[in-house]
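Appendix B. Chain record.
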Amino acid sequence: MRFKFSGSYAGSALKKIGWLIIAMVVALLIGAMIGYAVSGAGNPLTVFAPKTWEHILDFLR
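Structure tokens predicted for this chain:
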């Protein structure tokens, strides 16, 4: 016995999950920029510098 799934339903569900993941990543990036700009050096793009992440990881060790 085989189950038949509607391709449009599966595609729609996967599309919604994809958009949700994209929205979560964008929210994470914007939140990191705002959080670093408020509590950090003031430049929101500095959060993406490798030196910043090295400092954070050294602090956590």
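Further analysis of this model is presented in Appendix C.
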